[in-house]
UniProtKB/TrEMBL annotation:
Transmembrane segments: none annotated. Residues 1-22 are annotated as: Disordered. This is Trehalose-phosphate synthase. It comes from Sinomonas humi. One of its GO terms (molecular function) is alpha,alpha-trehalose-phosphate synthase (UDP-forming) activity. CDD domains: GT20_TPS (cd03788). It holds the Pfam family Glyco_transf_20. Residues 9-22 have a biased composition (Basic and acidic residues). GO terms for biological process: trehalose biosynthetic process.
Amino acid sequence: MRGSARVAQDTERTAPDTAAKDGRAAGSYDFLVVANRLPVDRAGDSPDDGWKRSPGGLVTALAPIMEKSDGAWIGWVGSPDEEIEPFEHDGMALVPVGLSASEVELYYEGFSNATLWPLYHDVIAPPEFHRTWWDAYRRINERFALAVLSRAADHATVWVQDYQLQLVPAILRARRPDLRIGFFNHIPFPPPEIFSQLPWRRQVLEGLLGADLVGFQRPNDALNFARAARRYGGAGGKGTNLLVGRGERAVHAEAFPISIDTDRISQLARHPEIQERARQIRHDLGDPKTIMLGVDRLDYTKGIRHRLKAFEELLVDERVKVGEVTLVQVASPSRERVEQYRLLREEVEGTVGRINGAFDTLQHTAVRYLHHNYPVEEMVALYLAADVMLVTALRDGMNLVAKEYVAARYDGSGALVLSEFTGAADQLKQALLINPHDIAGLKEAMVAAINLPPGAASRRMKAMRRQIIVHNVEEWSAAFLNRLSEVTHG
Ligand code: G6P
């Protein structure tokens, strides 16, 4: 499957000699994934501890394809000032892109996560626009693109992932028109009325329009993008079939809702040790009648404050009682140097402290708050222990936690309270759907979930399980890549 070798033409950090150090001739990969992060984390504190595969669906979906099609994954290792040579892990060729501390601040914390992230999530937090951040974003996108250019075989397929790398498709297109270029946006794409606030809206749209196929989570995201591309990006065409460059080239915008490795989660949930761990968790919490669970990155898009407010009011109203109901909130640390995330953490932790101060007894807690990352086995044990799962995001591209909960409930028990502002709500239609801004409605749904009769709960859960068993992450990546090859073969 190897394409013809190509002489590396780029400079900067991915000079030809670097490209050759992975033991391969430069320009020989037929399939490249480009994402802000590599699919591995350090296995310990010291660099000698090696690497372990990151949790998450994307790598599960793509690892087999990478092996079969002679692929490489290009991404950042997640910490500043590290110059790491390309290496292999789990049969995958990994190509690290280095970022200095100041680049992390400007490109990752700044433009990606304090400009684009809030702008694309309904301006829940105010986006900041700084020219220095934009300059860094452009520069770093160029760096990722250069790492591709020196490694892609003739007519290779390149799949660019997410909002951190929106300029990469056009950079690739300009220098390597032979490539087949796909882009997938994992987060929402806002309506043009919001997107248009971005001072660099034209450049971002032109960047994305470098792709042959631009994938989104929901049909509405694809439509938002297409409208913005026509209004501000110089594109023509109809609906989500766009035309660029004097009408010569087609760009397709379509929805491909991402999913999870359903089998793996279901299998873990059937594991006796994990089931024992779930019983232990219930016991450690004082065997309450009902455990409610929230699992989120500590992010203001997730509606954690709304969830806590609703729960606190239920306690005040005495519709739920400590000892009978416990809320477990796992909030995994995220983007901790970004101001809005710091403020959120203070607020959430203050609220949890206040609720527990008022309602805890010596034996029981109202909210068990855990600011940690857990391995997948522990997450599945938590899903099994939880009678009610709360997903109250104010805006979320997909929300894979909702799907994981459903995958873990193989016996059909459990209740899912799910925000209608998540991509997952399109697929998990039998959840108790809520508008998280409507606190009264959220409270009613929480009480309904606690009291859901087993028969009704099981009918809902089984219908949702059928959906994610068919539409798993493997199906997602296959659907995207098949469509990419279809649209590029004319
Ligand atoms: C979202 C984004 C991903 C991102 C992840 C974790 O799911 O779509 O691109 O990797 O959040 O955020 P982080 O900033 O830690 O990579």
